[in-house]
Design a protein that fits this description.
50% helix, Ribosomal Protein S5, domain 2, 7-stranded mixed beta sheet, 399 residues, alpha/beta, Helicase, Ruva Protein, domain 3, two-stranded antiparallel ribbon, elongated, 2 domains
């Protein structure tokens, strides 16, 4: 209103920003308990026991997206409190426990989860193609987040990369088709800077690369897929296959440092659900930025699988760590000339060198001369055929 009405700020002089989250502490948890108690008293609901209060704190942390913070959107929590009372009433219980709160929370998610179930069904029916085992060159599972009305959920998406001779351009198909947001486009440009810094010091980058989010039909934004795209490009250039059992999330800077992203819990749980539907095995896992490890607030079933070593979470700080996990080959350190032999970066540098040499062999006039040669050959053959035809006609006339 202050943007459109000049006198608004003159009339209302005091401004207060209400934060959507608060840092978790003992005093804040006590305040949360008081808020719940006040709602119970005002609306004459059943009492909450300690387990129910504790589960409400977990839900508040999940809404905040971090185990160290709690949401301050109390209207959402109040709805869950009311539904928990209804679940306890169904069971004939006088006191609300954690199981009633959990059923209430799952019920809310189910009512708002049509989009999630549709996407899950498409992956299960292989209408959306996702591999959760095996190895592929130039293909990786990135992690996307879908925003529903009440909550967000994550699901994997296939990212592929191809390489050909060129001038060092990394073509973002989403941007070219008008389906990429500004932040996503910026992430692809940062990838170009990383390649020039890491591999463009000895030879020019004489290749063009295509990056594609397969089977995406809407706008894509955010830079959390830039790590996955880097790994796909490194795989294509080195011809080393990537493990499809591991999904990747994380952004990066031009120096190869992995940067934190949002919705890390939803992304991990989304890939876990897909792996479970396809058959969970001990190789499945997710690579995340190391900074996001402190924010993990995962579901109980995911935590149980991690403890059993059925599912793995790999926090990384550098691109080198991620490519080693995905390929099983050392990334390689920079030497006086090139990289350590037999490493991922050495194979990438070798391929870039080969593409550079091929580009040097092709001279600007080569294509035209080849076309002219082929045209002249065809013209000569045509003239020979015309002459032979005329000679046969003369012989026929003589006869």
């Amino acid at each position: 209103m202050s943007e459109y009405e000049y006198d608004f700020k003159k009339i209302f002089k005091v401004k207060a920003d209400f934060d959507y989250e608060v840092k978790r502490s003992n005093s804040i948890i006590e305040e949360y308990a008081r808020v719940i108690k006040k709602l119970i008293k005002e609306e004459k609901l059943r009492e909450f026991d300690k387990s129910a209060i504790a589960y409400m704190m977990e839900i508040a942390a999940r809404f905040a997206g971090s185990k160290n913070k709690l949401t301050s959107k109390f209207s959402r929590l109040a709805d869950i409190v009311r539904e928990s009372n209804y679940r306890a009433m169904q069971d004939g219980a006088d006191i609300i426990s954690a199981k009633h709160v959990k059923r209430a929370y799952e019920g809310v998610k189910e009512r708002h989860g049509m989009l999630e179930s549709k996407v899950s069904d498409m992956i299960t029916d292989e209408m959306i193609m996702i591999d959760t085992e095996g190895k592929r060159v130039g293909q990786i599972n990135g992690l996307a987040v879908y925003n529903a009305d009440f909550y967000s959920f994550g699901r994997p998406t296939r990212i592929t990369a191809t390489v050909s001779l060129g001038s060092g351009a990394i073509i973002n198909v989403e941007r070219e088709s008008g389906m990429g947001g500004k932040t996503y486009n910026k992430g692809v440009l940062i990838i170009s800077g990383y390649f020039r810094e890491t591999f463009g010091q000895d030879y020019p980058l004489s290749f063009n690369a295509n990056l594609v989010f397969e089977q995406s039909y809407g706008m894509i934004d955010g830079d959390s897929a830039s790590c996955a795209e880097i790994f796909a490009l490194l795989s294509t250039l080195s011809d080393l296959p990537l493990k499809q059992s591991i999904a990747v999330t994380g952004s990066l800077n031009q120096k190869g440092d992995v940067q934190p992203i949002g919705d890390v819990n939803e992304k991990i749980e989304g890939f876990y659900d897909v792996c479970k539907s396809k058959g969970l095995h001990k190789g499945n896992g997710v690579i995340i930025p190391i900074q996001n490890a402190q924010e993990l607030m995962l579901r109980e079933d995911v935590i149980a699988s991690v403890k059993k070593k059925e599912f793995h979470i790999y926090p990384i700080a550098r691109i080198e760590e991620g490519i080693e996990i995905l390929t099983g080959v050392r990334a390689g350190k920079k030497l006086h000339r090139g990289y350590e032999p037999g490493t991922v970066f050495a194979l990438v540098a070798k391929r870039i060198n080969e593409l550079y040499r091929k580009s040097k062999q092709i001279k600007p006039g080569d294509t035209k001369s080849k076309i002219n040669d082929s045209n002249s050959k065809s013209n000569n053959s045509d003239s020979k055929s015309i002459k032979s035809n005329s000679q046969t006609k003369k012989k026929k006339k003589k006869k």
